[in-house]
Amino acid sequence: MVDQQTRMCTGCGRQIPIEYNVCPHCGRPQNQAPYGPAPQPYGQPQQYEPMGALKYLLYLLSLSFIIGLIIFLIWNNDPNPEKRHVAKNCLLLAFVGIVLNIVCWGAIAMAGLMFAW
Ligand SMILES: [Zn+2]
């Protein structure tokens, strides 16, 4: 009934269940070799396409506050570190956009007042 597959530890030579990746007796990592395909590397850093010029377009669009905020909300938790970086810059630019707007409209309002006199 118990047909548990075991293999010999490459470190201490004891029988360990085949699904163990690390020997419970001596702690030696067990790879699938010599037979079978090489074990899939886990936790390997994922490669992402560089964003290139796209991010500069997004920065430009972020000066319109809502777009910058939306990019930030979408990408702030992205696994791609470049997107998270862009997201933070977009949020920053969104606020720069607000300040520019206030300054711009303020200047127009001031000019309007001066001409009104
Ligand atoms: Zn062992």
What kind of sheet is the major sheet?
2 strands, antiparallel
Number of helical runs? 3
By helix and strand content, what is the structural category? mainly alpha
Distance between the termini: 100 Å
Biggest sheet strand line-up: 1-2
Radius of gyration, in Å, reads 29 Å
What are the bound molecules?
Answer: zinc ion
Q: Which bin fits the share of residues in helices? A: 40-55%
* Residues in β-strands, percent: 5-15%
Total strand segments: 2
Shape: rod-shaped
Count of the separate structural domains: 2
Low-confidence stretches: none
What features would you describe in this structure?
The protein is mainly alpha-helical and 117 residues long. It folds into 2 domains: 1-35, no CATH class; 54-116. It is built from 3 helices and 2 strands; from the N terminus they run E-E-H-H-H. It has a two-stranded antiparallel ribbon with strand order 1-2. A hairpin with a 6-residue loop joins strand 1 and strand 2 (15-17). It is rod-shaped and about 95 Å long. The protein starts with 5 loop residues before the first strand and ends with a helix.
Keywords:
single chain, 117 residues, mainly alpha, 2 domains, 3 helices, rod-shaped, binds zinc ion
Summarize the structure.
The chain is mainly α. It folds into two domains: 1-35, no CATH class; 54-116.
Write the layout of secondary structure elements.
Elements: E1 6-8, E2 15-17, H1 54-62, H2 65-75, H3 81-116
Antiparallel strand pairs: 1-2
Helix pairs in contact: 1-2, 1-3, 2-3
The structure holds zinc ion.
The site of zinc ion has 8 residues, from loops.
